[in-house]
């Protein structure tokens, strides 16, 4: 994938003392190929590479960053600019109802995202009405009704009536039922054609939506960009919902849409479940494409269940490298609240590959707890003290075996090593602000 390619390139830049023109040129040639292979629009790539080059060559090398890190930082920043703009906000009309119209090709995720949006807005205190304007397949109406039922949100439908009439009637219905947001799910086609555009134009004229959002499948790469360009030209888009970003996307669509069409990606679809919608974060997307892990998502997820003060203490300990077995135990308990340990660790840059060495089976946690609890305070602080006789005592005390005690100590040691890496400037330092 793109991130592997770029990381290869950046690895080679590592260890170079200065940002020389030849080095930058060489790296940029590879970045260019990697981006093209990721299905990024060729013109976007050309401009992007030129900009990064211009900023990189002859740059004063900051003390806190290696040259490679500095180029990554520039690539990261330029990617953010490329995808930039305000993140997911729906313009709420001063006079309700706010009308949102979802359009796009068949299978892009319109119906799913109509429901997800309704759910999201409902959680923000709004009263949304879902409107079934995809009249060509009875199953499409049913699909929206099922989702509405699941979310306990009202769905407005009039069977095979003309979409324009349904849309108009839905506004009246919303007005008399206290619904302040109307979300219109429209029909798609396999390809853009005049019939589809005509129908959408008619609905637009009839209800004057506050937001026309294009739903596009990120997996379709450049096609998604072409589709966005056509829809924008024909109908004037207010934003894009980029779906299926949970899949194995190559990043091309995310990186090109804004640059090619000028339309902001407002939301990202991250799965089939009803809560799998997020405001689109260019910075996170850039990190993900660069393979630096989604650090911000990690921090956010951690903060949801971590006691913030505890997290701070933990960070300080990490930086001072005073992480003890007691902290390990503590952290394990926190992790239990946060969900599978592996899914958390995978989000930390560079951990993926090392993960299997320190993999903690969630079923093991009871044993681990017992083992640590059987150690003295001093042993927990200085595990190096634990030689054979102590191992025997701890195994006996915890009802485990000497091998299990040994293996825990070994894993803890590996974890400490890993954490030292992240606390160092070459590790997570770059995104976390690094050491000044
Ligand atoms: P529509 O034809 O545009 O209305 O598309 P649908 O909403 O019916 O979605 C088509 C398929 O894509 C369905 O199976 C959805 O469950 C699936 N889908 C929609 N959004 C996402 C997403 O963000 N991630 C994943 N993995 N699947 C999605
Ligand atoms: Mg649909």
From TrEMBL:
It catalyses: GTP + H2O = GDP + phosphate + H(+). It is an enzyme of class 3 (hydrolase). Its main location: cytoplasm. Signal peptide: none annotated. GO terms for biological process: SRP-dependent cotranslational protein targeting to membrane. GO terms for molecular function: 7S RNA binding; GTP binding; GTPase activity. It is found in: Cytoplasm. It comes from the Bacteria. The keyword tRNA processing does not apply. Pfam families: SRP54, SRP54_N, SRP_SPB. Residues 97-291 form the SRP54-type proteins GTP-binding domain. Gene3D superfamilies: P-loop containing nucleotide triphosphate hydrolases (3.40.50.300), Signal recognition particle SRP54, nucleotide-binding domain (1.20.120.140), Signal recognition particle, SRP54 subunit, M-domain (1.10.260.30). Keywords: Cytoplasm, GTP-binding, Hydrolase, Nucleotide-binding, Ribonucleoprotein, RNA-binding, Signal recognition particle. Its EC number is 3.6.5.4. GTP binds at residues 104-111, 185-189, 243-246. One of its GO terms (cellular component) is signal recognition particle. Residues 1-83 form the Signal recognition particle SRP54 helical bundle domain. Part of the signal recognition particle protein translocation system, which is composed of SRP and FtsY. Composed of three domains: the N-terminal N domain, which is responsible for interactions with the ribosome, the central G domain, which binds GTP, and the C-terminal M domain, which binds the RNA and the signal sequence of the RNC. Involved in targeting and insertion of nascent membrane proteins into the cytoplasmic membrane. Binds to the hydrophobic signal sequence of the ribosome-nascent chain (RNC) as it emerges from the ribosomes. The SRP-RNC complex is then targeted to the cytoplasmic membrane where it interacts with the SRP receptor FtsY. Belongs to the GTP-binding SRP family. SRP54 subfamily. This is Signal recognition particle protein. The gene is ffh.
């Amino acid at each position: 994938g793109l991130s592997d390619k770029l990381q290869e390139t950046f690895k080679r830049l590592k260890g170079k003392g200065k940002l020389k023109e030849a080095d930058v040129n060489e790296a940029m040639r590879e970045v260019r190929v990697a981006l093209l292979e990721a299905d990024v629009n060729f013109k976007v790539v050309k401009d992007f590479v030129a900009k990064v080059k211009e900023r990189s060559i002859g740059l004063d090398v900051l003390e806190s960053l290696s040259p490679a890190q500095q180029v990554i930082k520039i690539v990261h920043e330029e990617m953010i600019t490329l995808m930039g703009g305000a993140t997911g906000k729906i313009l709420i009309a001063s006079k309700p109802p706010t009308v949102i119209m979802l359009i796009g090709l068949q299978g892009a995720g319109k119906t799913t995202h109509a429901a997800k949006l309704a759910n999201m807005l409902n959680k923000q205190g709004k009263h949304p009405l879902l409107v079934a304007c995809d009249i060509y397949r009875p199953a499409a109406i049913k699909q929206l009704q099922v989702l509405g039922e699941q979310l306990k949100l009202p769905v407005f439908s009039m069977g095979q009536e003309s979409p324009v009439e349904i849309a108009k009637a839905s506004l009246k219905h919303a007005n008399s039922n206290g619904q302040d947001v109307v979300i219109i799910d429209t029909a798609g086609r396999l390809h853009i054609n005049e019939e589809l555009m005509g129908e959408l134009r008619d609905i637009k004229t009839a209800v004057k939506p506050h937001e026309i959002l294009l739903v596009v499948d990120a997996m379709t790469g450049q096609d998604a960009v072409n589709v966005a360009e056509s829809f924008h030209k024909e109908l004037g888009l207010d934003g894009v919902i980029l779906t299926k970003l949970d899949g194995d996307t190559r990043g091309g669509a995310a990186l090109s849409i804004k640059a090619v069409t000028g339309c902001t990606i407002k939301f990202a679809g991250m799965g089939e479940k009803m809560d799998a919608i997020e405001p689109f974060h260019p910075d996170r997307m850039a990190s993900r494409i660069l393979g630096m892990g989604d650090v911000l998502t990690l921090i956010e997820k951690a903060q949801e269940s971590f006691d913030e003060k505890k997290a701070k203490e933990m960070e300080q300990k990490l930086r001072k490298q005073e992480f003890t077995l007691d902290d390990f135990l503590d952290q394990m308990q926190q992790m239990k609240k946060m969900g599978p340990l592996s899914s958390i660790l995978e989000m930390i840059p560079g951990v993926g590959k090392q993960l299997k060495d320190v993999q903690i089976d969630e079923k093991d946690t009871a044993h681990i707890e017992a083992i640590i609890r059987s150690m003295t305070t001093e042993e927990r602080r200085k595990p190096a003290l634990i030689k054979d006789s102590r191992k025997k005592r701890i195994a006996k005390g915890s009802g485990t075996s000497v091998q299990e005690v040994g293996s825990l100590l070994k894993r803890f040691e590996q974890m400490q090593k890993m954490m030292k890496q992240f606390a160092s400037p070459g590790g997570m330092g770059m995104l976390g602000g690094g050491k000044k």
